[in-house]
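User: Can you recover a sequence for this backbone? Please restate the input before giving your answer.

Assistant: Of course. Working from this structure:
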């Protein structure tokens, strides 16, 4: 009886706390939950179904991704080019998510899937930029080290993308890996074609 009373009172307190949160606090809470699962997905420990089904974390994550893109601006890459590449990437990921979910009749998962695809790009970019800058800061760029780091990041990115496609579309690992690889190749060709 004591356990039941304690559990019931805890439930009431949690309900009141949720009701007393402002809309901004709820949005921030959803985004922090999303960030936690983006990180866990990058470690292959979570899946898109654990993300909040809300557009607000997607908007905040998209804004973060555009702000990260500003760190990539240099003489060879303008704001416009970086923005075009990000929009191309988001458009392609959104299209793949939509088509895959539509074919499996799982469109209710679109927001969570797109949020996952966007979020993992933010996390991987947050790791990639300092890694490349660290290699470049050593004075002379070691070609082998740059190649190894690029290969590791590429394989990591493909593994995480494959995991998201597998769990969101409910498909085999081989098929999800093929989708991730085809997306990567198509995106790279598109970026090469767009580059001046």
């Amino acid at each position: 009886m004591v356990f039941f009373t304690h559990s019931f009172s805890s439930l009431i307190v949690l309900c009141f706390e949720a009701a007393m949160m402002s809309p901004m606090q709820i949005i921030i809470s959803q985004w922090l939950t999303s960030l936690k699962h983006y990180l866990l997905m990058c470690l292959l420990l979570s899946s898109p179904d654990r993300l909040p089904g809300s557009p607000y974390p997607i908007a905040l994550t998209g804004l973060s991704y555009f702000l990260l893109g500003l760190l990539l601006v240099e003489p060879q890459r303008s704001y416009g080019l970086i923005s075009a590449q990000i929009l191309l990437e988001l458009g392609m990921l959104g299209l793949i998510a939509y088509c895959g979910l539509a074919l499996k009749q799982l469109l209710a998962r679109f927001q969570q899937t797109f949020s996952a695809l966007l979020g993992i790009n933010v996390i991987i970019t947050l790791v990639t930029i300092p890694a490349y800058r660290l290699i470049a800061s050593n004075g002379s760029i070691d070609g082998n080290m740059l190649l190894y780091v690029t290969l590791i990041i590429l394989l990591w990115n493909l593994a995480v993308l494959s995991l998201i496609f597998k769990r969101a579309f409910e498909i085999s690992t081989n098929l999800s890996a093929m989708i991730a690889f085809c997306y990567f190749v198509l995106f790279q060709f598109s970026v090469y074609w767009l580059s001046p």
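That completes the design. Helices lie at 2-20, 23-42, 55-70, 79-103, 110-136, 143-169, 173-194.
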